[in-house]
Every structure is written in C-alpha cells, then in structure tokens.
Amino acid sequence: MTSSKLSISLNAQLVDFLEHYQAAHQIRSRSEVISEAVALLQERELEQQYAEALEEWAPEADAWEVVTGDGLTEERDAAR
What we know:
Blueprint: H1 12-24, H2 30-57, H3 61-68, H4 74-79
Helix pairs in contact: 1-2
Protein name: Arc/MetJ-type ribon-helix-helix transcriptional regulator
C-alpha cells in the first residue's frame, strides 16, 4: 500500500495521548496510531451508512417474505 505524507497540527493534550497510546500498545510510529484512528473513523462512517441503508430497506422487507416463503428448508437446500 502506498502512503501519502501529511502534516497535521494537534493540541498538546492529543499529542500526549497519541504518544501514550503508542507506547502502551507498542506501535512503531505515531503515523500508525493516526492510521488506526482514521480507520476506526472510516469504520464508524460505514456502520452509519449501513444503518441508514437498512432503514431505507426495512419497509420493503415484507415484500421479501413472498420470496423466502418458497417452501424450501435450509436442510433441503444444503443437500443439493
């Protein structure tokens, strides 16, 4: 994976936390700590998007009952 170099400014409290977290979790660099933090933010964003998509789809869920009520069971499907 290629990396891009960034320059960021953080207040002293965040820098202290960053360095403490790095040491406590034996992470090689502050960049890796920041990468983990951004990945968690990305995951949170995706979870929110999935939740919103589910809310949009939920009213249509009853329509799927017609399709799933085909009389086949999982046991019969697995035997195929």
